[in-house]
């Protein structure tokens, strides 16, 4: 009789391990499928956002067909002249006034305090489409691009001024 009790306990233990083993295997397969679909990637959790620094405005960021656009503005109390608004992805070097040969930029003669302008990254200040802009075209629908919007400008007779206007995360549409 003692031998049968030990056999029943062993059989019960094996059934327990098999039942929970299959359950764990199924959960692992489902989690693997969800990870491969990108459900848990941070880009899919974050939407489009543009967070402006104090004294600046950033709204309506959009990345569509490789062109980044947004509405930006400043309310610093002084008018800016010879303005370049630049989008730089994270990992890019900090901009230096007057030497923009890459980056997605738009030029404006003047931006008054309180004024907002529409900025589009279709070409840079040299009139050509830089590689950093064309790389935006490779961002597929649902992909995200993160970076910052910078401005170089002249204000109150001082040229070569640089300010970061905003940080952003844009989901391509």
Please specify the SSE layout and strand pairing.
Blueprint: H1 2-36, H2 42-45, E1 49-52, E2 56-64, E3 67-74, E4 80-89, E5 104-111, E6 116-120, H3 131-134, E7 144-155, E8 158-171
Antiparallel strand pairs: 1-8, 2-3, 3-6, 4-5, 4-7, 7-8
- Note the beta-strand portion: 35-45%
Order of strands in the sheet with the most strands? 1-8-7-4-5
- Summing up helix and strand content along with how strands pair, one would put the structural category as alpha+beta
* Residue runs with pLDDT of under 50 for 5 or more positions: 123-130
Count of DSSP strands: 8
Main sheet record: 5 strands, antiparallel
Distance between the termini: 72 Å
- Gyration radius, to the nearest Å? 27 Å
CATH class call of the largest domain: Mainly Beta
Name the average pLDDT: 76
The helix content, as a percent range, equals: 10-25%
Count of the domains: 2
Number of helices: 3
> SSE order in H/E notation?
HHEEEEEEHEE
Would you tell me which CATH topology of the largest domain applies?
A: Immunoglobulin-like
- CATH architecture tag of the largest domain: Sandwich
Which overall shape is indicated by the principal axes computed on the Cα atoms? rod-shaped
Architecture overview:
The chain is of the alpha+beta class and 173 residues long. It has two domains: 2-40; 47-171, Immunoglobulin-like (Sandwich). Helices cover 25% and strands 40% of the residues. Strands 1-8-7-4-5 form a five-stranded antiparallel sheet, with no helix packed on it. Strands 2-3-6 form a three-stranded antiparallel sheet, with no helix packed on it.
């Amino acid at each position: 009789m003692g031998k049968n009790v030990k056999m029943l306990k062993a059989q019960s233990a094996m059934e327990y391990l098999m039942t929970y083993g299959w359950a764990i295997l199924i959960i692992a397969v489902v989690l693997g499928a969800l990870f491969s679909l990108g459900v848990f990637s941070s880009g899919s959790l974050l939407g489009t956002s543009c967070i402006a620094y104090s004294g600046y405005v950033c709204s309506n960021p959009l990345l569509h067909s490789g062109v980044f656009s947004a509405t930006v503005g400043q309310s610093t109390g002084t008018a800016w002249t010879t303005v370049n608004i630049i989008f730089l992805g994270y990992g890019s070097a900090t901009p230096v006034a007057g030497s923009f040969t890459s980056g997605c930029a738009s030029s404006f003669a003047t931006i008054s305090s309180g004024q907002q302008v529409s900025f589009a990254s279709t070409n840079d200040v040299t009139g050509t489409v830089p590689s950093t802009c064309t790389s935006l075209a490779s961002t597929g629908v649902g992909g995200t691009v993160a970076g910052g919007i910078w401005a170089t400008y002249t204000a109150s007779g001082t040229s070569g001024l640089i300010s970061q206007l905003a940080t952003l995360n844009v989901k391509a549409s």
